[in-house]
Amino acid sequence: SQTLGEIFNLFQQHLDGEQDLREDIRLAVRDLEQSARGILTALQAIHQPDGISKIHELCKKSRSAFTNVQNQYAVLKSKVPENQYYRFHDHWRFVTQRLTFLAGLTVYLESEALIQREEVAAMLGVCVDQTEGFHIDLDDYLTGLLMMADELSRFAVNSVTSGDYSWPVKIARFVTEMNLGFRLLNLKNDSLRKKFDALKYDLKKVEEVVYDLSIRGLRPSSENQPPSEGHM
């Protein structure tokens, strides 16, 4: 039989192995965080006075950077033991949410459409279905969408400053539809619910921009009235 010292030596070996594994995961996540900062820095240029004219170029740059992100997720996936995704999920939760936001912002600027979970998974190089392994968690996807709404409300304000009055109207319609969609969900995650609570302030900010354009006679006549929040 083992002595008490031998038993605790085995415990220590297990703890050391666990620590080494977590450090490997942290290093892989650090690379993803660096890529996310680079993409964010590139897309922040939309807020500059000449940013709207460069949207196509900025989205192309973002798409290119996501190729590297896919490679980095492949490295991360190789570090995570099979069937232990949620044991280590906290390590990459935030960076995945941020990259979802950046992927969503890229797609919206390209097509004015909501990015689907499957499209996020493809851009990150991960799965959608939990049974297939390393995947995009639904809460992380939804959180990324809410982060995107916050960025779009800022873009609506800065678009007016840049002399473009069409983006705020389009963003108001889009964020209104997002708000109505999120209202259909029974959110159990406290963090996600708090972020959803902030969505109404993002919507209010954009609606105020559109209202200001309307009373100043600057709202593009070709744009239809965005749906009211009260219309279901």
TrEMBL record:
Q: Mostly located where?
A: cytoplasm
Q: Which residues bind Mg(2+)?
A: E151
Pfam families, from UniProt? Translin (PF01997)
Q: Which GO terms describe its molecular function?
A: endonuclease activity; hydrolase activity; metal ion binding; RNA binding; sequence-specific DNA binding; single-stranded DNA binding
One biological process GO term for this chain?
Answer: RNA metabolic process
Which CDD domains is this protein grouped with?
A: Translin (cd14819)
GO cellular component terms attached to this protein's record:
cytoplasm; nucleus
- Assembly notes: Ring-shaped heterooctamer of six TSN and two TSNAX subunits, DNA/RNA binding occurs inside the ring.
Family according to the record: Belongs to the translin family.
**Protein's recorded name:** Translin
